[in-house]
Write a structure and sequence with these properties.
- By secondary structure, the protein is α/β, with parallel strands linked by helices.
- It has 21 helices and 10 strands.
- Helix 1 crosses helix 8, helix 10 runs parallel beside helix 11 and helix 18 packs antiparallel against helix 21.
- It starts with 14 loop residues before the first strand and ends in a 26-residue tail after the last helix.
- The relative contact order is 0.06.
Length: 564
């Protein structure tokens, strides 16, 4: 072995198969859930052998078939990740939530990638596989940025995933096609790239390349207590360890309280992490809510003025997305003797938290804390879900961009291109389309209107007549015609309704007219209306070229009826 991790005279494995280990279901007779991954690995190795000149006895690929954790396991993984030519991840929801899978991805991508020739543009040695359909899931950034076309493996593969193609005999031909093309792609990428052997990294210390967990699925557990080196002289060190997170208040029952809280949180579907409160408190006070949180508070720490002030500041910040739990063991003689003292300190320091928690939360667990491990087990699910709900409410309450204004028909007339306003035409009597029909100040019929009983110069009369004419032309009967005219009269000016034009409203007492008489009357009315309009237009100031006889919309009021 060289310092680079591989003997350069030996053939390097073509691919590293990265997958998420699936735990057994626990049902009686259940088989190994990773059996299908091993079958895929064997089929891929056989297909790659057929497409290459790998000598006999040389491993074609690598698959981690061991669930054992430890230094030897981590060293083997690091060695294979530093030497393989292609990285083959099996995409599934479980894969992108696996920390070891994210570490494998990170280790491989630390190695540089060079195109084998100037004509090749390939810059990645990753060939992903759809183990399960991922259309309903959001890929992490590193996977989303990877350009890869799955269509070449067949339509059933893209919609069902390789796992379904393996298990169902109906898809046997589709599975064989997908494996063949996957092997060909692995060989192609290996030949089109140059990925030098990398250094073996300390696998357990590598970060995960994935960060797809929703914030509400995370839970930040922080601990406020002492470690053995800073304990008060009157406190038994048996309940503490070398780190603050080693605090074990219910000793000998259970385990350190942070580890016990992690196990309970995972049962609720959270992905918990453990932190020291001293490192978290300033971020919490400033309102930087990264995820829901739990504070495991040792009341003995409230005797320290500095720590007590930190808790008081936390309480005043009203960080409702962090729930407080106070493990308190009454079987610990030192705790029992100081129960009243520490209860008073807790009440004074966490005033807002106490008010917000009663009676539905603290009332259940009791005002004196969680006296046993059983009480703690009962209280943690409620506290974790309470923090989650508060975090979700806070996230929804964050201000968003204001919605776009709703479109306005009036503004479209005034400002739209080709309409009324500065960006179009109109708005002045000298512009092509005349005055703004919505503006009473520019109504040419209002200033010289004759209010005599026999005349109606209301602005809506000509528009009504023209519309009635076209209603008649479209084949309205006498009843429909009268209905249309009267309904539009309801939207006309008040004076128009009180003084209807006798030429446009027939006498209801008259005998019904036949079709020829009605057409003659409408034609005469239309001609008279146009003559009146032409006469008025001749008396008005110049309004550019305007066709007063052939424009069907001439003299008509805008949509919605005349302006009132």
């Amino acid at each position: 072995m060289t310092d680079r991790g591989w003997d350069e005279d030996e053939a390097r494995p073509y691919f590293f198969l990265s997958y998420a280990h699936t735990p057994k279901s626990g049902a009686r007779g259940a088989g190994d859930p990773n059996h299908w991954v091993r079958q895929l690995y064997r089929d891929l190795c056989e297909a790659v052998l057929q497409l290459t000149t790998v000598p006999a006895g040389v491993p074609v690929g690598f698959m981690d078939e061991s669930m054992h954790q430890g230094e030897l396991w981590a060293e083997r993984l690091s060695e294979e990740l530093a030497t393989c030519r292609v990285f083959v991840p099996l995409y599934s929801p479980r894969y992108f939530n696996s920390v070891p899978c994210g570490q494998e991805w990170h280790a491989f991508t630390r190695r540089p990638v060079y195109p084998a020739t100037m004509e090749v543009e390939r810059t990645s040695g990753i060939v992903p596989v759809l183990w399960a359909p991922m259309s309903r899931y959001r890929l992490p950034q590193v996977a989303g940025e990877l350009q890869f076309n799955h269509a070449g493996f067949g339509p059933d593969y893209a919609t069902e995933g390789l796992y379904a193609l393996m298990k169902l005999s109906y898809f046997r031909a589709a599975y064989e096609l997908a494996v063949h093309r996957l092997a060909a792609r692995i060989v192609q990428v290996a030949e089109e790239t140059v990925i030098p052997v990398g250094r073996r990294l300390e696998f357990n210390g590598l970060p995960s390349a994935f960060n797809v967990s929703a914030p509400t699925k995370q839970l930040r557990i922080s601990v406020l207590t002492y470690h053995q080196g800073e304990l008060p002289q009157d406190r038994n060190p048996d309940f503490y360890g070398a780190r603050r997170t080693d605090w074990h208040p219910y000793r000998p029952a259970g385990s350190p309280i942070a580890q016990h809280a992690v196990r309970l949180a995972r049962q609720l579907g959270f992905q918990p992490t453990v932190h020291e409160f001293d490192d978290e408190v300033e971020s919490i006070i400033e309102g930087n809510a990264e995820a829901p949180g739990l504070l495991l508070l040792d009341r003995w720490a409230l005797r320290d003025p500095r720590r007590r002030e930190l808790v008081r500041r936390f309480d005043r910040s009203d960080a409702t997305w962090v729930s407080v739990l106070e493990p308190w063991n009454t079987e610990d003689r030192e705790c029992l003797e100081r129960d009243g003292e520490f209860s008073g300190l807790s009440d004074q320091t966490l005033r807002k938290t106490r008010r917000a928690g009663r009676p539905s939360f603290l009332g259940v667990t009791g005002p004196t804390g969680l006296n046993s491990l059983e009480d703690f087990d009962d209280a943690l699910p409620r506290a974790a879900m309470k923090a989650k709900y508060a975090f979700e409410s806070r996230t929804r309450a964050e201000p968003e961009e204001p919605p776009a204004p709703r479109p306005s028909l009036r503004e479209a007339f005034r400002r739209g291109p080709g309409g009324y306003g500065p960006d179009g035409f109109g708005g002045h009597r000298t512009e092509p389309f005349g005055p703004d029909p919505f503006d009473r100040d520019h109504d040419p019929d209002r200033d010289d209107r004759d209010d005599s009983p026999g005349r109606d110069d209301s602005p809506g009369r000509d528009g009504r007549a023209a519309r009635d004419d076209y209603g008649a032309r479209d084949g309205y009967g006498a009843d429909e015609e009268r209905t249309v005219r009267l309904s539009r009269a309801d939207y006309a000016a008040p004076e128009a309704r009180t003084a209807p034009d006798p030429r446009t409203v027939p006498d209801p007492r008259a005998a019904p007219e036949d079709r020829t008489t009605r057409i003659t009357r409408i034609t005469r009315t239309t001609r008279t209306t146009r003559d009146d309009r032409t006469a008025r237009d001749n008396d008005r100031p110049y309004r550019n070229d305007r066709d007063d006889g052939d424009d069907p919309d001439a003299g008509m009021a805008p949509l919605g009826g005349p302006h009132r």
